[in-house]
Structure formats: structure tokens, C-alpha cells
TrEMBL record:
SUPFAM superfamilies: Tubulin nucleotide-binding domain-like. InterPro entries: Tubulin/FtsZ_GTPase_sf (IPR036525). This is Tubulin-like protein. It comes from Marinomonas foliarum. It comes from the Bacteria.
Amino acid sequence: MSQENLPIEHLYFTETNLEQILENLDVVRNRIHPQLSDDEVAIDQVFPSVCLIGLGRCGSNIALDVASLVYDARANYMREVESQEILESEREFRPMRWIRKHLPIEGKDGFKPVFLIEPIVLLGDLDKDIEGRIRFSNQEGRTKFLEEYKKLQIMDLSEVHAGGAGNAPILGQYLAKIILNKDATTFRNENWKNMHSYLVDSCGIKANQSRLYFYIFSAGGGTGSGMASEFGLAQQFSYLSKTFDYRSDQNQMVDKRHSFVFEPIFTSGICILPNISGKNVEISEALHINAGRLLTKYISEEWNFSYNEEREDDEVPADVMERIRPWNSMMLISNDIMRYAEEEDGGDADNIDVNTMEKYANQYISQQIFNILTAQAVTTDYDEDYFRRAGIDIAETIRLDANDLFMSLAGPVAVAYAESVVGEGKHQDTVDIDDLFCRSIELPHFNNDTSAIEGVSVLPVESDRYRDAIKNYRKSGYDASELNHLHFFKNCSSIVSIISLPRDYKLSFTALNRLKMHLNRLCPNTTLKRYALVIGASANLSLTTLIAKSPCLSDDFLTLMVAYMKRCFARDDYRYTDEIDKAIINMIQEDEFDESLVDKYFTTYENPAKILDTNWYAIKPMYEKKYRELIDNSQRFVSINDIRLDINNVKNAIKYLREIYRHRISKTNVLTLNG
């Protein structure tokens, strides 16, 4: 699909010259890989299968934390390898080796997990000083880490805008649109065209081996919340436009690096939801409205892409291109995690300072990204001698590739997580699998043995009610009948479970079966269940479960979405009453959807002025002037008015919720001719 024939809604710049794309990719490849010796060829250096994109202050901090964890794990591993090689070179006596191996000389705390997957990490912010903020933070060892972790790249976008988005997602989205609609070759910053080719232009071509992209951002802010979905849309747009490009000359290319290979890429937003409950939190805060906008936008796009049957012709590529959504799935992680964890630990959440709260929430998120990465990592992502040195049989691992995730996870996703310590040589039956599973779905809490935060990333219902339900679940001997009627579990369409084991630990067949039994009982209507078994990537036995689609029916999700609709769409008569709240619940539950009710309660377009404490009509021309100056082509002009959400987004979001609310499966009956 040529640049000239792109749908008018999407004016994203895409480099179409394949030679130029390959050239730009080689620049990125040479930057992220160590210096090669003369006999090695740059072309053989593959890109990691995973890329993390941290956007905004919150997103870039979390992506940085993940990169730091990976770097530290590799450093520990390499030190271990070096000391082992020194021992071997000294030809140490076998009895001494036995003593070192069997006595816990280093102590419990010295045992580090081996984690050698190194994703590409891209950090982007509308703050001019993003590089300074990262480089000069006082974190110990940060400077050395930044010098050595070459796969970490900073996207400097300051020539488009040198300040933030003022806590307004529509401004963050508009600025991202300027960045992505502007010809990447015209940026003063040479690095941007190379990063653009890696992230946007080259998805699906053989020269770029990255297949999984995770966008990390805060839903409550302006920069991350606005930019993330626009970056995701540009990437999806570039990828899908290649799949609909049927030019015959593709088959005659001599250099196979040029060719587009139809392999699914899996992209996910990792969305940090703002604090929603607690003594001092009011639901009318701008953070909640911002998050509600993002959730409404995403599920309305997901409805249009995956479910909308009102479209005329599904076979027309242009029609599909107009209905793209930014990611295959969006993982939801609540910032209330830390508050619940403190309360469960007997502490007072009101007295935690903001930095500590953010630090622990970020730790939980980093853990989840870690486990998702290990579950799909290909062998080329590891150090080449890793499996041999670690004594791991690669045949015993069960991996999830991009295609598995592409088919298994769509729409909003929640995470359940728990881990257990298993000592070396410990018997299989010593781990309580029932307890491990229960801890993974509890309210967030600290695991005192491992210092990890466990629990579910978004609560299915209000915290006191859910806490009581979990207590009864334990007391009843794990009878799921009180939990499995909650929509969060009952209407879940697919599940992905990732079990990570230390290298010397074997999980018994019965333990694995018990895990599957718990999942089956808790989520009775799940259509698709996928499992991954990862060996040697963790010091502990850990369980991560990804629950798809049904989290959009959780209390938090609905509350944020309706708060936004009331603030930015509601007609004056209904803005301050609970009539809209009740009406939307009824619209989801009623057998027939009366769309005229939406027209009754809401105006045609969102009003961004409702969350800005300033004159929207004065701001709008300032940003549009910036667009005209940076993209000097009147035919490619986009007004801020054009990116407002409209009443169709509201209708589609409600239709999506109705679809998930009605999710059922029919049980398979055994048929026989032998009556």
C-alpha cells in the first residue's frame, strides 16, 4: 500500500525504501551489539526477540528498572562463570569442588537467578531533559550500567516539543502524531530515523528479528497515556500496510533481508492505572479521567477491530487499515498494589511516601515483564554457552512464541503472580501448590521469604469484598464456587500460565495437574488455555497467570471509564448525578442495546477543557501552529479536533463490555453411534 494511498485517518510517515531501512537497521544493530572482530559480519548479529518501549516519566523509569535487573543478573552470572573458570584452571581437587558445591558457602542471599535475556529498551519522553534525568540520577552504579548496557537507547524527541504534555493525554497524543507524521529523515537528531526504522518501518522483515514489543506507560498522566497508543498505532499501521502490499516484485528479490515475512508480531501495552480507592482519594481527580480516556479509546478500537460486524466489506484492506488498534493486548496494573501490600502486612498505607509506593509498584511490574520475557525467549536471546554451563536441557522447556501470544491474548489483560522458595535438592512435594495458586490471586501482599510482591494486578471487585471471598476460598479447601461467579473469572476468554522453575527443580506431574485443576475451576468459561514451562531463569518457583478480556468488567476498569465519560461527554443535566452510572450498568446488562440512550446522555465529542484548568480554545491554535510549522504540507494537516474521541467511541466501548459480559462456552458432549 503506497504512501499516497494511505487512509486519510492515518498520515503516519513510513519509510518505503527498503535499502534505506536496512541501512538504518545496521546503524542500530552496530550500536547495540559489542564491537565485532574482523572475521565476524555485522549482518549475523540478530536483534533481541523482545523490545521494551518506556514512554513518559513512569514508563521510562520502569523500563529502566527492567534493564537494570537484566544487567545485574548478567553481571552476577559472568562473575560466577569467571570464578568457575579460575577454579578449573587451578585444577582444584575433586573433594574441594564437592565441598564448594554442597555447602552453602555464599549463604541464602548470595544465590542469584540466572537471567540472560537482554531486550532492546527504548526510552522516550516529551521532557527535554530525559537523558539528564536518567544519567544523573543518584542510583548506585547507574553510570556504569548506562555505559555497558548498549541495548538501552534514548529517543530524544525534544526538537518537536521540549516540555511535557501538561497532564493532558490529548496533547500527548497530538504531539506524538506530529512526531510520527513528520518525515523521519528531516529530524535534526540523526538517531531518530534509525530508531524509527527499527520500531516502525521494519516490523516483519527478516532483517529485524524482534517480534514482541511491550509499551510501558502510566494511564493517568499526559505524555505516556497520550503517546503510547499513538506509537502503537503507527507500528500496527506500518505492519498491516505491508501485509496488504501484494507487489509481485517482492518474489524476485535477490537479498532475502529485503523481504517481508508474514510472521505475527505481538504488541502489548503495559498500563499503570492510578490509585483509585483509599481514604484520601477522590474519583474526580484528573488522573482518573485521563486513565478513563485511555481505557475507553482502547476497548472501542478493540471492538472495531475484532468484533464489529456492522462494517460492509471485511475483504477491503483499506477498511481494515482504518480500524486498527494500537496493541494486541493491554496489561492492566493498578498503582494501588503498594497500598494493599502495606495493609496486608499490617502497615499504614497513609504513611508511605510517594517514592516508596512507586518503587514497589515498579518492582511488581518489573517481575511480571521478566516472567513474560522468559516464557517466550528464543535461544539466541541467551548467552551462547548458557544452557551448557547451567546444565539445562532445552528440550524440557515449553516456550510461548509471538504467535502463541498473538492468538491467546487480546484486549485488556490482568496478571496474577506468586512465587515459592525451593532449595537445592529439595523434594518436589515440599511446595504447597494449592497455597502458591491462592497467593497468586490474592490481594497484593509481600512475600517475606523472597521480598517479592504477589497477588493480582487489578482487583475483580472492591477490596473488602474480595478479601472476604479469598478468605472463604481458603477455608473451604479451595472451593471456587464463591469466586468463579465474579465476572473477572467467569467471563475470562483465555488464560496464559507461565511456570518458572530453578534449574535443579523438577515439578511433579501431579503438581502441574493441580494447577490446571485450580485454573479450570476458577475460570469455567475459558475457551483457550496456554502453558509455558521455563527452566533455569529463576531462583524460585514462580507462577504468572495472564487473564484476558474479562478485566474490563472489574470495578476499577468500569469506575475509571464511567468517570471519564461523565466528565468529558455528559450533557450538563447529567454530569453531577448518578443517573449515567446506573444507565451504563443497565446498557451492559440489558439484552438489547438502546443506542438512543447514549445520545440522550452524551454530547457528540469529548470536551478536553473539562480536565484542563485553563482555556482550551487558547491552547488549541498553539499546538496546531506547531504542527503546520513542522509538517509543511497542508494536505497532511491534522487538527486537534480530529483526534478527539466521539460518541461512537463511547458506543463501541459499551458494545465491547456487552460482548465480554455475555461470554459463554458450550461444553463438549461425547457422541456415540453405539446406542
